[in-house]
Amino acid sequence: MILGGLAGSGFVAAILSRGFGNKPSPEIISTPQPVPETTPEIISTSQPVPETTPEIISSPQPTPAPPPPPQPEFPIQTFTTVTVNRRGEIISSREGKAEVMTENFNGVSLEMVKIPAGRFLMGSPETEAERDDNEGPQHYVDVPEFFMGKYPVTQAQWEAVMGNNPSRFKGASRPVENVTWNDTTEYCQKLSQITGKKYSLPSESQWEYACRARTSTPFYFGKTITSELVNYRGSSTYADEPKGKYREETTDVGIFPPNAFGLYDMHGNVWEWCADDWHDNYNGAPTDGSVWLDGNENRFPLRGGSWDQYPSRCRSAFRGYNFRRFNLNYFYFGFRVVCDGGRTL
Length: 345
Hints:
Mean pLDDT is about 85; it is low at about 1-45 and about 340-345. The protein has helices at about 1-20, 155-160, 180-195, 205-210, and strands spanning about 75-85, 90-105, 110-115, 120, 140-145, 145-150, 200, 270-275, 300-305, 320-325, 335, 340. The chain is α+β, with helices and mostly antiparallel strands. The longest helix is centred in the N-terminal third of the chain and has 19 residues, at about 1-20. The chain has one domain: Alpha-Beta Complex (paralog of FGE (formylglycine-generating enzyme)), CATH 3.90.1580.10.
């Protein structure tokens, strides 16, 4: 653009001088300005594309196999338990399994069921039919693992340790009855000496936890019981079930279905002594499954009902009591033992 402009103005000047003078002026020819050298555009050479490291795709690692379940320490026994509705009709049944430790002594066997550790709500809700105030307040209890007798102590097992049989309703496989709290703790002491393990009566919380077996209904069978499932005063009813048999005596242990832990006769047949002192309610009760002392030392709890009791007294939460010693023929008081729990005196 600069060069073109200068050349144009020189050309106009030459025309004008020719028109106004006689002597022609020499044509002024503008010297062309040197064209400035243009710096050549530097085109950057494309940088070499760096070599990309190929993506390393790791092959998927095999999922480690889960560790094998721990092997049971004791033999496994299977059983079938049932659930009933308010009419006493069986609405479901299922198979259960339990580890069972067997003690053999003096010609008899004692089967002890492994009760898993767990938490449960002890006592009964205020809405439960025919509940008593001593069944509350409800409270959670964390119970460590322990072993409990699969059945109430039988007459054969009693005789093998104590050398006598105080029972009214005789039968080697029937539960021993007509025993005092002191009698049962003496049995536990002698059994401990024979076996080298600590045997005792259960605490109330151990007993109820084992009886409920993770249920919250009045009975571990459900909303009621029938005389086809329990030995009790079957001529009376609890819910809408029909009346049944009142046998008026004990029966062999283990002839009715068990609960979900594999324990038999936790409802009915014989009352079962517990190790605790008697307390009128659960205010201040321990929450770790231990024996509760510092109460009425002359009274001790009884649980589970008996062959002579109404169904409401066979409920999981029902609490009875009696005295440490008595001279009456109470042929519905029995017991079962636990291992590494409770107390022996």
